[in-house]
Amino acid sequence: MQQEHFERCFSRRKHQSGHWHTTDISAVNPLVRWLVIQLSFKHRELDAFSKRCFPCATVVDFGAGTGSYSRFFLQRRDAAVVAVDWSPEALQAIGPPPRGKILPVCADLHYLPIKSSTIDGLFSIDTLGHLHHQEKALDEINRICRSGAPLFLHSECSDYQQRWPDRRLLEKTGHDPIAALDGHVAVRPANAMHSLYEQRFTVLQFFSPAGIFGWFLGYPEKYKRALRAARMFIPALFAGGAALVKHLPGMKTVFRCSNMFTNRIELFLGIEGGGSCFAQCRRTIPESRKVGSYVPSIDVVIPTYRRSSLLPSLITALAGQCTDNDRIFVVWQGNDPPAVSGSARVFLLHRKKPNLPAARNMGLAAGGNPIVLYLDDDCTVQDGLLDGHRTGYAVAGVGAVGGYINDPLFPPAAELPSWFDVTTGELRQHFALAHSGPAISVMGANMSFCRSTLESIDGFDPHYRRNALFEEIDVSFRLLHAGYTIHYCASARVTHHRNPEGGCRSDGRSRNLFHTFANVAYFACTYAPLNDLRTWIRFWKYRLEYLSRSVGNASMEATIRHDPRLVIAGLAGAVAGIARFAVYGKRTGLPDAVIDAHRRWRLHRRVKAGWIYPHRDRCGIARYSLDYIEALSGAAEVVDIDPRWWTSDRKRFRRALDNCDLLHIQYDTAAFIRRGREFYTTMLQGVAVPVIVTLHEVYDEDPAVFPRSRLTGLFPLLQFRRFVWDVRHPVQRAFQGHLRRCFGALRILIHHRYHADILVDKGVDASLLQVLPHPVKRIAPLRPFAFSGLPCVHLGTSGFINPAYDYDLLFVVLERMGRPWTFSWIGGIRTADQQPFHDALIARIAQRGWQNCFHITGWVPEEQMPSRLSDIDIVLALFKNRSSSGSIARALGACKPVIATAIPLTKEIFSEGTAINTPGADEPPLFLTPANADEVVARIDRLLTDTDSRFRLYRGLSRYVETVSFEKMASRLVGLYRESVCI
């Protein structure tokens, strides 16, 4: 009691004399406020504390004195401040605040007349050192504050007593004269104060400036008296001189700046432990309410802006799921208040300037429960939402939980709730999976955080503005950087309606595009890997190209038109985002967890390839493509794209190409020509993914056309002839142009090695080329050939009727056959301009009287091919020249013996077949013969009569079909896909 009486009397004398009348600082002006917080740690930390408090909070100024710090606090935050002090003289001197209200309360700081858990925040400056029973005062602070309430505690400490000149003063006088002058009756070392705080609160930040030069720059007038009393005359002389200079006009500010400058240098060098300590704390959540208990409480935060029609039903649904301690905070922005009213459970917070991350932070500061759940205002919740989020934190280390979101924009199928493409900066989310599991991000419509975790990373970044694109991804990545994990909970469900009214969706296209690319640029500056910066820029450049297109373009237009205002808005937004990062940002790079997830996902996921081939054409490329796509279905996702869509339905073409990892073009020059003009080059200009091209036919000179290189004549005449040749042969002219550009491909696939030699001679980089043999599809069971007892041998072939086949040789062979025969040509003409050639062939057959034994079927549907080929005994492939042919592959897949003329194509098949034989075996997949009728007839006779020859051919064919099957080639192709997209 004697101690308390002394403290009261000392306090009264100090207030009556004016020594404890702290100067009010008006800091309404932002520049003045900035200068003040730079000059004073007390004001700087109080300013930081005010940002952690939510508007309309009830805050205690613990040891308020004359209320100068209360008024400074209210200049920053509109709240109700309970100014507690035991000096009536000090409380009577409290003037009116600039806004909010100050409620003076005269009370003993050890026994506060305030109900438990009712205070939303508390700060104490220059108070705890004047109390003998600091533990009791801190316990009282712990009692009156609600769970999670922010605290700022400034206290005097005794570390300065270990430094000169205070150490020398103690030795000479036996007591601390500076503490006696200031009334510091119970000062402790900084580490002891930190220990007291940690026993009761969660300490977020703690520091103690050393103040080595404080005796000279900070308080020279106090030290002058103390040093003189201790007979330390030389230091007293310096202190007296400093005190005299300090009282000159303007010098007090100079001294304060110098003292603050030296304090900051001390902190920068790690020199701490002086006469005061600063602590930013939070009222610790009781053990019974921590995450991991059966019923952790939740604060539900719902930011809303220009959209409140769904709020009443949303809050009603949430109220039915809340426990006694759960609370709902509606943060409304702008000037349109929501159509809901506050209650004991529902609290309304107002932020005039719209900013979604800042609104989320306001809701975070307002609450105190261990879990903070964020919902969009255009959601409807399902039963079990809150309980699902509670159970998500049962596993240690979980910092955030993303809930199930029924959203119309999610892709139709996905394997993970979210993944991030490290190489492009593209984020894909699918929070509608049926099973729970780990995730790398959350989505703003339904996400929750452990409060302590979110506060430890300073909440959401308010520099993501308006549509705030990437704001929840940014906070997720910062959580991962801090070592926490993110969990996806499939039982915590909402439906996201994406209401087009209100919010930032009602912004115009230009404004929305500006903020989109400003946020993208700000995010990229923070996280984009430097090695992938080029691909990030390319991806978002094409994204801007897509988003800036003019609305209402005709699909048949040859060029895409862009709105210049949208292009300028996007570019200006990117520049603004970079400037914003330069001022506010901090580069961190991607978390290791995101990079590892990207690698795992790319390793195990199915590649999505867009296949461009002519769908409706009756050609081998279409059949080949369909067979390949079927073989790829188990290992890759293939999207069929018809090249004609580029000219007839460009939107459909773009939609098909959307989200593809690469583009695989089955190249046929004629498929990319419309009205005599090629569109292949234009089509590839808007493709941002790797391109692979398969060339099915490669000639040194097109055998069907007189070579352009052989045109002769004087220069003017030669130029004219070349011009005429280009006009008459648009397909060949387009092919040469594509060839010079290497088909715009990352990789060029060919079926034979001699194709590579031709392309290299024409200037194609050999590193782009890769041989992938023409695959064989088995359409009949493999069984040995048997021709015994045949009254008539059935010969045949398949494919288009064209000049590449050696019909002269075929007719001579048929004339010289020594046994009855029939011949079937399974196929017909490809285009109408080949009709004269077909008619001439029919005439030649009629001249020989073969109408009954020589059959041309015309085009045969795919389902009829196996039965047609099964009727043939021997397939003749008597080519003059052929770059690549599916007809031989068809025959081998039907397990038919093939006799072919020796051209580069058949020679490679022969050599590949013999290369996979067992050592020393002569078992080719087909028989080769010179382009000589007698040799062909002899080979047919030997095949019909020689059992050993048939057996060797069967063995070689079986092995070849197994080696180059569509399944084996598809597996190799998937490997090329993964390599091309860096998987």
Shape assignment:
elongated
Q: State the distance separating the first and last CA atoms.
A: 77 Å
Quaternary state reads single chain
Q: Main sheet, how many strands, which sense, barrel? A: 9 strands, mixed
Determine the mean pLDDT.
82
Strand content: 15-25%
Secondary-structure content class: alpha/beta
Per DSSP, the total helix count is 37
Low-confidence stretches: 287-294, 553-558
Rg, rounded, reads: 42 Å
- DSSP strand count: 32
Helix-residue proportion: 40-55%
In short:
This protein has 983 residues and is α/β, with parallel strands linked by helices. 41% of the residues lie in helices and 17% in strands. The longest helix is centred in the middle third of the chain and has 21 residues, at 564-584.
